[in-house]
């Protein structure tokens, strides 16, 4: 198929398979590896778009489930799509809504056609299947859209994982059939299979049988231990086509990103940097720290010495401690700026090391998982 994306791998680490690449989209280029902040309701929580751009953000993620419910995909389509609706001019990726509706548990019923569910706020009944997901995402108008999939939370039996995986494959065929904007929107397929090696291999074969612009690893970090997360990513990423972008969905600690890059993944997203910020926590070279801690009350150092983000170049830990303790919104804003920037810097440092042929040394110098 003719893809609206162009992807080129610029360098590969022979020790690990880590890649540095360049992805061209209808709304601009993206240097990979890349972290994508999550803007669930078409906004990165606590930030204005100029602040988002200043963190180094190249692409953002929006959630089609939430936008379908409020304000409605048809309204956003009438506004000219997400780019005009939000005034964000750089690339946007939307997820299919599958993970959100499957997370509703008591409020949804799944069958082979899709998912019937109740709005988690109003209680109104809705239905989304692969055709509906494509209609919603086509209307929203992002650069990259995701296939509708079924994600099982761990622990899941092999039988449960297989059932969800096979349904995901059938739905992918329906998504391909119903996708109406292949000329300017790239549809990514999603590999499922839970923690089971055999199922992951089977899913890669099924999903990559469709000639798509990119492929994602789904169903990771949904209840399993870190060792199983790493095992799954290490197994699955190298099996995906080398000439297409690889996207690991829903992971976002500094160590998780570094490890996934080491496995050959190009794209990542997670709500963690802004969620932590709203709870007064930050990523630092010392590991994750809570600014609520009294030890910061008279600490006049930057949050992360040497960090060039707005927060670290303008404010002290003591000031951030005060904002967090007083539950001031500015605290969440400043910590969100830093946390997003920190993850961008993590990805950029890995990219630079890959291009310079020193990724193995760089990877071994990073924090351990316990401190991330």
Q: Helix and strand layout, with pairings?
A:
Layout: E1 6-12, E2 19-25, E3 28-32, E4 34-39, H1 49-54, E5 60-63, H2 64-69, H3 73-78, H4 82-86, E6 92-95, H5 98-102, E7 108-111, E8 114-118, E9 125-128, H6 130-140, E10 144-146, H7 158-178, E11 186-191, H8 197-207, E12 214-217, H9 226-236, E13 246-248, H10 254-263, E14 267-270, H11 272-278, E15 281-284, E16 287-290, H12 310-314, H13 317-325, H14 329-355, H15 359-365
Parallel strand pairs: 4-5, 4-14, 5-6, 6-10, 10-11, 11-12, 12-13, 13-14
Antiparallel strand pairs: 1-2, 2-3, 7-8, 8-9, 15-16
CATH superfamily of the largest domain: Queuine tRNA-ribosyltransferase-like
Strand order of the largest sheet: 4-5-6-10-11-12-13-14
Helix content: 25-40%
Taking the alpha carbons of the first and last residues, their distance comes to 40 Å
Low-confidence stretches: none
């Amino acid at each position: 198929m003719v893809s609206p994306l162009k992807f080129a791998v610029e360098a590969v680490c022979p020790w690990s398979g880590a890649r540095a690449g360049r992805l061209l989209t209808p709304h601009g280029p993206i240097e990979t590896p890349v972290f994508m902040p999550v803007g669930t309701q078409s906004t990165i929580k606590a930030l204005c778009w100029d602040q988002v751009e200043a963190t180094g953000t190249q692409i953002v993620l929006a959630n089609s489930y939430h936008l379908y419910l409020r304000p409605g995909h048809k309204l956003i389509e009438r506004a000219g799509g997400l780019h005009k609706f939000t005034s964000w001019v750089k690339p946007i990726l939307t997820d299919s809504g599958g993970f959100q509706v499957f997370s509703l548990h008591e409020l949804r019923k799944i069958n082979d056609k899709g998912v019937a569910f109740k709005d988690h706020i109003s209680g109104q009944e809705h239905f989304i299947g692969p055709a509906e997901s494509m209609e919603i995402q086509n209307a929203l108008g992002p650069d990259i859209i995701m296939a509708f999939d079924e994600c099982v939370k761990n622990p899941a039996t092999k039988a449960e994982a297989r059932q969800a995986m096979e349904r995901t494959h059938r739905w992918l065929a329906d998504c391909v059939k119903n996708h109406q904007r292949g000329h300017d929107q790239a549809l990514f397929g999603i590999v499922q299979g839970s923690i089971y090696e055999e199922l992951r291999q089977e899913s890669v074969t099924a999903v990559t049988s469709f000639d798509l612009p990119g492929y994602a690893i789904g169903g990771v970090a949904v209840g399993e231990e870190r060792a199983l997360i790493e095992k799954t990513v290490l197994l699955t990423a190298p099996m995906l086509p080398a000439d297409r972008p690889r996207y690991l969905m829903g992971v976002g600690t500094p160590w998780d990103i570094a490890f996934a890059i080491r496995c050959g993944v190009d794209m990542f997203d997670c709500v963690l940097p802004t969620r932590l910020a709203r709870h007064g926590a930050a990523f630092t070279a010392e590991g994750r720290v809570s600014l609520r801690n009294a030890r910061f009350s008279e600490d006049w150092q930057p949050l992360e010495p040497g960090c060039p983000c707005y927060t670290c170049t303008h404010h002290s830990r003591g000031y951030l401690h005060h904002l967090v303790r007083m539950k001031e919104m500015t605290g969440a804003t400043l910590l969100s700026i830093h946390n997003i920037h920190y993850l961008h810097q993590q990805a950029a440092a890995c990219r630079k090391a890959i291009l310079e042929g020193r990724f193995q040394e760089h990877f071994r110098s990073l924090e351990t998982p316990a401190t991330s």
